[in-house]
Amino acid sequence: MNEGSELDTIPGSKNFDISAKVAEFKGLMGEIYACGTCLELRGKGESNVCPVSTMSDLLKMVEGSDKVLVFG
Known about the structure:
Blueprint (H helix, E strand, L loop, with lengths): L17 H10 L6 E2 H6 L10 E2 L1 H9 L9
Parallel strand pairs: 1-2
């Protein structure tokens, strides 16, 4: 959500390679979704890193989770 929907364009740094961390997370069966509304506001679409999700998708993730963390 919000700036996180720009994950595919966030540059890595010498000390933190974001693309390697994303690949590692996905390799561990992690799933990353981007808020469709957030993407639309930024003039962006679906990417290979994070497919577009909806509020219904978010609700399903929350309902199916043991724990939910909120940052921000």
